[in-house]
Specification:
The protein has twelve helices and four strands, in the order αααααααβββαααβαα. It is α+β, with helices and mostly antiparallel strands.
């Protein structure tokens, strides 16, 4: 009996020792966090800490975030923090953003902060940065120098181009941050407003004398609508004359008109040459008909001789008339040649 009892007690003892070791390890692993949370006034139960491990949640992140919030007078349950952690959010940044918003007296709920954090997850920005921008406004250069463009070129009504560079002071609009347009939209809209303002000016001198008119017109257009920012001010940092676009366009138009006129003149010349060639061909055709008609004269004379309608004397007179005509034509051609030489 003694041996049997020993055989039964030994495995139970081993199991008990293993259970005790597991309990000790768990106690050692979570004791520090448990004490830290309780001492900071944000207690978390041992069971909850253990279950976080099973839920694949980092207990240290949750506990430290809860302590940070509690020290700032904000209290969030571990379930809220765990839910955002499991959704892929940055719990630490969310809590820091909520603390910063609370200290700056900015209305920001936990759910809104989580939504902003998830929305900015792949953009390289954080909810903490959004809150800080809401507290301390940032300045955006228009146009963006990183795009390789330093100034926006716009043309006034008198045809003179003006280069303008603006600086836009914005503050994050947390209510529109999720789903709102980004800085690129602000830059594009401000650039469009600058072009419109300069284009509506009667003269470039008006723009140079009153650059603030550009700011007023752009602000009146409400360029921050449906964006994640609220524009506080638009300041014209630099404005200068670029080029006389109107004169250059007029010069190019005149050159184009000249080329069109030359083309039309060439068309008329070609048409005149073609008409002249056609008339020359018709003249040759008429001459051929005259020669053909003259060729029938000897035949008609011969026919008249045969029929007795023409005598020898009549023929002789005809020859004299022909000879006189040729002589007169020859004299006329020589006189005309002499006049041309003179």
């Amino acid at each position: 009996m003694g041996m049997l009892a020993l055989n039964i007690a030994l495995p139970l003892l081993i199991v008990g020792i293993l259970v005790l070791l597991v309990v000790v390890l768990i106690f050692v692993n979570f004791l520090g966090l448990w004490i830290q949370a309780r001492a900071a006034g944000a207690p978390v139960s041992f069971v909850n800490l253990i279950m976080m491990r099973f839920r694949k949640v980092h207990p240290g992140t949750i506990v430290n975030s809860r302590i940070t919030a509690a020290k700032a007078g904000l209290f969030y349950t571990t379930d809220q923090l765990e839910a955002h952690y499991l959704a892929g959010g940055d719990v630490i940044n969310v809590v820091l953003a909520l603390v910063a918003a609370d200290k700056a007296d900015i209305s920001l709920s936990f759910d809104k902060a989580c939504a902003i954090d998830l929305a900015t997850k792949d953009t390289g920005k954080t909810v903490l940065e959004a809150v800080r921008t809401s507290i301390n406004p940032k300045v955006i250069d228009c146009p963006n120098p990183s795009a390789g463009i330093n100034k926006i070129t716009a043309v006034a009504k008198d045809g003179i181009a003006v280069n303008v560079r603006a600086r836009v002071t914005v503050r994050t609009n947390l209510d529109r941050f999720v789903g709102g347009a980004t800085e690129e939209t602000i830059i594009a809209r401000v650039g469009e407003g600058i072009v419109t303002s300069v284009g509506s000016a009667a003269s470039y001198k008006t723009v140079l004398e009153n650059p603030d008119s550009i700011s007023r017109l752009v602000l009146e257009k409400g360029v921050d609508a449906a964006t994640a920012f609220s524009i506080l001010s638009i300041d014209i940092a630099d404005v200068d004359v670029a080029d006389n676009i109107g004169a250059r366009l007029q010069t190019e138009q005149a050159e184009a008109d000249k080329q069109v006129a030359q083309a039309k003149a060439e068309m008329r010349r070609a048409a005149a040459v073609a008409s002249e060639q056609e008339m020359a061909a018709r003249t040759q055709e008429m001459r051929a008909k005259v020669v053909e008609a003259e060729a029938t004269v000897p035949l008609a004379i011969a026919e008249a001789f045969r029929n007795g309608n023409l005598g020898v004397m009549d023929y002789a007179k005809y020859q004299n008339v022909v000879a006189d005509t040729k002589m007169r034509d020859s004299i006329g051609e020589e006189a005309e040649s002499d006049e041309n030489q003179k």
